[in-house]
Write a structure and sequence with these properties.
There is one protein chain. It contains no helices and 19 strands. It is an all-beta fold and 239 residues long. An 8-stranded antiparallel sheet has the order 9-10-11-12-19-16-15-14, with no helix packed on it. Strand 15 and strand 16 form a beta hairpin.
């Protein structure tokens, strides 16, 4: 299929390492909107594959119940945005509907690097929110890497954070970075923030999933309200 698949109308980018390269890191990046078929509230979501397995992911669908197809559908923490690796803005999850839509600000593709910039502010019903852009940069160099950068601006101080979602094991390291790993592979997760310090807040998502296991949401939350901030999370394979 080549080193990338770009679905411009859906706002979805799939990036793959070059054949016979030293990188084994692949990613799927999602813009889209929140009124899609079998919708999840997941504007700006992403998946990271290392080797043949996803270490960071969308945990998938829940076991169907009457709630799934009712007005209570988005009480589910795997169908609403809590169960996806997307921002939490002023304490609010993403809203539902086609107005909650990622706008492609820019994209650029080369043999070495693919970049996608999304304006995802419309996904949040927060009057104080003035800007929220998510920038993905995928590199095929060396072992490969992905950086996800959220730049936010408010008209007055508000809380802000983002998240990672995994089924696998994780560990917080002394330098405030993370390791996410299974029996065969490991990702190093480097986190930087401007505007405020951050904390890692893990939470098990207790929903009945088709995967028959419960994911962990790793909240990356600023410790105080901000008028502007940048959180950058960079993923690289680890020995």
């Amino acid at each position: 299929p080549g080193i990338r698949s770009w679905f411009d109308q859906a706002g979805i980018l799939i990036c793959r390492p070059a054949p016979k390269s030293t990188s084994r890191l692949g990613v799927a990046l999602k813009g889209g909107h929140n009124n899609e078929h079998h919708n999840h509230n997941d504007v700006g979501s992403f998946v990271v594959i290392l080797g043949d397995g996803p270490l960071l992911l969308d945990p998938g669908g829940e076991v169907y119940t009457a709630r799934t197809f009712s007005g209570r559908r988005y009480e589910s923490n795997v169908l609403n945005s809590f169960g996806h690796p997307v921002p939490l803005v002023a304490g609010k999850l993403q809203r539902t509907g086609s107005q909650a839509r990622a706008r492609v600000v820019s994209h650029g593709f080369t043999e070495d690097t693919d970049t996608l910039v999304l304006d995802v502010a419309s996904a949040y019903d927060v009057p104080e929110l003035k800007k929220l852009e998510r920038t993905f940069v995928y590199s095929r160099l060396g072992a490969g890497s992905l950086s996800v950068t959220d730049e936010v601006a408010f008209s007055k101080p508000c809380n802000f954070g983002t998240a990672l979602v995994t089924f696998e094991k994780w560990q917080e390291l002394p330098d405030a970075s993370l390791k996410i790993y299974d029996q065969k592979e490991a990702l190093h997760v480097n986190i930087t923030a401007t505007g405020a310090e951050f904390t890692i807040e893990p939470e098990t998502i207790h929903e009945d999933l088709n995967a028959r296991k419960e994911p962990t949401r790793l909240g990356i939350n600023l410790t105080q309200p901000v008028t502007g901030a940048v959180i950058r999370v960079t993923f690289t394979p680890q020995e």
